[in-house]
Amino acid sequence: MKKIISTAIAVILLIGITAGISFEIYAGSMPKTSITKITALEESFKVEMKKADKVTGYQVQYSTSSKFTKKTTKAVKTLNTYSAPKNLKGNQKYYVRVRTYKTSNKKTYYSGWSTSKSVTTKNKIALQKLTVTPASATITTGKTLQLKTALTPKNTSYKKLKFTSSDTKIATVSQNGAIKGLKAGKVQITVRALETNKKVVVNVTIKKPYVAVKSIAITNKKGLTLEDGKTLKMAAKITPSNATDKTLIWKSSDKSKATVDAKGNVTALRPTEFVEITASTKDGKVKASYTLKISRKSGYLTKADLDKLNLSGVNNLMIVAHPDDETFWGAGHILNSKYLIVSLTNGFHQDRVKDFNSVIKRYGDDKGIILSYPDISRYLYTADGKYNGYETDMWSTCKSGMEADISLLLNYKKWDTVVTHNPDGEYNKYHHQQVNSLVTKCIDKSKNAKTDLYYFGHYYGANAVIKGPKISKKDLRMKEQIIQMYLPTAQGAYDAFKHMLPYENWILRQDW
């Protein structure tokens, strides 16, 4: 009976081969295998099989059906492990079985299938966010910048990134995010998370290597004098000529004397023997300075200015160096007559102007003018705020302008009295002496040369016997009150000269 069955099988195989039908040949003596471990992966799985000797390889078969109606079969040579493609369905149950096979004499022999095991694949973890730092960057040619990336969540299934440059002639980027600058320009570095729609664009500027400024030289002709109200373009030479940033920061040591704009255009605002214009690099490490004089050849005043004051009832003229001189040396007279009081200096000093105008208003019907000629009692500072000397005679740049203003005042109308500082400058104050000299000189040339010219009285030390009468107690009280309006600016003068306040013994020029 066994012989008949074997003969029948042989006949069937012969007929099948002749007809071109393929058959699997099962050999009862073939070593078998089994699944020792099966691991669920993201949209995949991994199978580990019992190792079999003297076989060509293994076959793995998997299906979503336990009956393996629709199945996939894969051969694995030599290795006893198999990882399914990573494009299976996630969260899907698969049935898996394995067997061995052997190829010999152009024939392949198979063992029987092992007992199947099931595994449920995992879903992929979505990428929620891709972060790249820095978000933008600037690098120099030849240098490298490393981009840093972060994935959210960290255990996302989509970890593969691709880096690209919008212009590889300007900058390249490696697949680990290292950007290398090649030449000056701008590029976009795009970072993409593969198999997702996530991407980040980093704007990168490539600059030439930084070349620092070594020196600045102001090339304007030395010793220039600029007329008040005029402008001067400052010029500077920067070394080296290929410096990366040639921007200069221009500064004036005193903005009340002259201003300078970002382009180096200087505007003269008032006469001075010294104003320093400085050009420096942005970081202030390199700088150059230029000392400029500002002149005033013409006066500040015009006849129209005086007409506006309505001086018809004012018949006395007082010309002083500073605001407060009129009160220290002449308040008693001012309180009893109408004066046009002219201070030649400090019209540029807001606080002094405010105090002066308040005092003139306090006097009542008197009029006042404060001009912007310089006050020589002033320390000099550079544009950096460093002490740079003491002014001794700034009027060399503006005496012609002062003479023009004084002459206009003297000739404007017939004055009953003109009064100014005495030749001694009261207490040897150089500025006061100069005002005395200018007023005396101008009145001699004026059409009112015969007008009575008075000088302030002699100054006496605190312990000296003072000659002459005192002003009335009423006027002295008023004088004290008005002087308080000049404090604290005039505190030093008040402390030094308060013993002289009761005395205003003016002296006619010819009696001096």
Descriptors for this entry?
512 residues, alpha+beta, Immunoglobulin-like, 4 domains, six-stranded mixed β-sheet, 9 helices, 35 strands, 20% helix, rod-shaped, disordered N terminus
Task: Describe how the helices and strands are arranged.
Elements: H1 2-18, E1 25-26, E2 35-41, E3 44-49, E4 57-63, E5 71-77, E6 81-83, E7 93-104, E8 107-110, E9 117-120, E10 129-133, E11 136-140, E12 144-146, E13 148-152, E14 161-165, E15 171-173, E16 178-181, E17 185-193, E18 199-207, E19 215-218, E20 225-227, E21 231-233, E22 236-239, E23 249-252, E24 258-260, E25 265-268, E26 272-280, E27 287-295, H2 303-308, E28 316-320, H3 325-334, E29 339-345, H4 350-363, E30 367-373, E31 379-381, E32 387-390, H5 399-412, E33 417-420, H6 425-428, H7 430-445, E34 452-455, H8 473-484, H9 491-497, E35 507-508
Parallel strand pairs: 1-8, 11-18, 20-27, 28-29, 28-33, 29-30, 33-34
Antiparallel strand pairs: 2-3, 3-6, 4-5, 4-7, 7-8, 7-9, 10-13, 12-16, 14-17, 15-16, 17-18, 19-22, 21-25, 23-26, 24-25, 26-27, 31-32, 34-35
Strand content: 25-35%
Total beta strand runs: 35
CATH class of the largest domain: Alpha Beta
Distance between the termini: 168 Å
| Architecture (CATH level 2) name of the largest domain | 3-Layer(aba) Sandwich
Q: In angstroms, what is the radius of gyration?
A: 52 Å
Shape estimate: rod-shaped
Q: Mind summarizing the main beta sheet?
A: 6 strands, mixed
Structural class: alpha+beta
